[in-house]
Amino acid sequence: MPTNEPLTPPSSGRPSGRPSGQSSGQPSGRPSGRPGRRPASSRAAIEDAAGELFLEQSYARTTIEHITTRAGVSRASFFNYFDAKSDLLWGDVDALVDSVEQQLRAQPSNIPPMDAVRGALVSAAEHVGSDRIPLAVTQWELMGARDELLTSGLSRFSRLGSLVRVYLDSRAKSGEQLAVTAASFALVGAVAAAAGVWAAQGTARDPLAPLIDRAIAPVCDGFAPRFS
Amino acid sequence: MPTNEPLTPPSSGRPSGRPSGQSSGQPSGRPSGRPGRRPASSRAAIEDAAGELFLEQSYARTTIEHITTRAGVSRASFFNYFDAKSDLLWGDVDALVDSVEQQLRAQPSNIPPMDAVRGALVSAAEHVGSDRIPLAVTQWELMGARDELLTSGLSRFSRLGSLVRVYLDSRAKSGEQLAVTAASFALVGAVAAAAGVWAAQGTARDPLAPLIDRAIAPVCDGFAPRFS
DNA sequence: CGATAAAACTAGACCGAGTACAACAATAGG
DNA sequence: CCTATTGTTGTACTCGGTCTAGTTTTATCG
């Protein structure tokens, strides 16, 4: 007996090909230049289904099978679009970290390093509109057990830490490894704290950027003397 | 067909009861007061086997089955002693966090809050002798992909953050929620950074406590003005 | 001593996330 | 039509973790 597929026994098999459910209009838009089958609207369908289910029954109690079933997609398809279940929650945060990376590169090199980092973080935060909020934030209020959320999210923030560390390292004199690393991860801690407070404010929250700024300012002040 | 048990088909079954292998002497020491079967040396056997296997083939490639097989213990027994595989790596860190909690309670209440936290963290770090080093640290050098390690460890540090936050919260005037949270998690970031640098030093590393102190000092300096 | 209760341990089924791979379907271009 | 390419699916598998029922060892009480 196969291991998975607790639901949807072989009978009543879904018609292969794209299902008739949901909001997927005929995906045959433009020839798109390159060969191969064109993607159905699977990605959006998955995201929508996940958003609904997370609100209905929380992240922890929603399985990937639930999501794909509601989206009218195969379980295998899920992993074509996402590497892990937690990507549904934190994918937006990943994108935000990417934007921090860009902002860091865009910083002028004649200002003190900590000011540059501060500017980059705040700039990135300014692009977080209240329109597109990471799913993780909406879950924050809902979840009784935040540990799973927290754990799945921390690794994303650690990427931010590595990013900042590389930047600071490039602008510090050697022999400052400890200070560079400490500053980077202290900043990330402060950012995460601000994000947590922001998420906890529920709907109609304040803009994120000033919060971030207030949270990281003391860290910047503390470490600034350690850098040129 | 059963799902698991890829190895050890029903043939060649290990003799039930305590195996003759390893270092487990007859555990019948003292009557120990209370009823019930006395524990075999399973816990130590598991830890030893895990330590060996992690060094031989890394954490990621070692399954719980491997560990329990070498330890001569059933898989079920593993979960009698540990909640998760990652506890083998981070259990010592958990204990360390506990000791921070104690140190926080032992701090005099007439010194500034940030000084108290700093003292507690450094005191706890002083008890980390080079004798008993968390397995995670020894793995740090070995692992090609540190992400799994990192992820499994971050949640432990987040507990430290919550601890500090509660303490700071009890000593701050209300309305300082953001500052309290930011300070807590910035501290944790700095501590984690110091621990990482320490771990990366390989064998014969410097004492941890001064490293921690140097890492968190700027954070304390930065946030100190925000608290009474 | 025997009965009982508690504790350590085991066996085995089960679940869900994640991986791997071989198909199959749709589409562009020759 | 043929072929290469890309999206999608079915299916088997691994592993961490949970759960439950049952077995063995032990101390205590009658």
From TrEMBL, chains A, B:
Record field: compositional bias (Low complexity): 10-43
Domain HTH tetR-type, first and last residues per copy: 40-100
Keyword list, A-Z: DNA-binding, Transcription, Transcription regulation
GO molecular function: DNA-binding transcription factor activity; transcription cis-regulatory region binding
Pfam families listed in its UniProt record: TetR_C_14, TetR_N
PROSITE patterns named among the record's database cross-references: HTH_TETR_1, HTH_TETR_2
DNA-binding region: 63-82
Top-level taxon in the UniProt lineage: Bacteria
Protein name: TetR family transcriptional regulator
Region (Disordered): 1-43
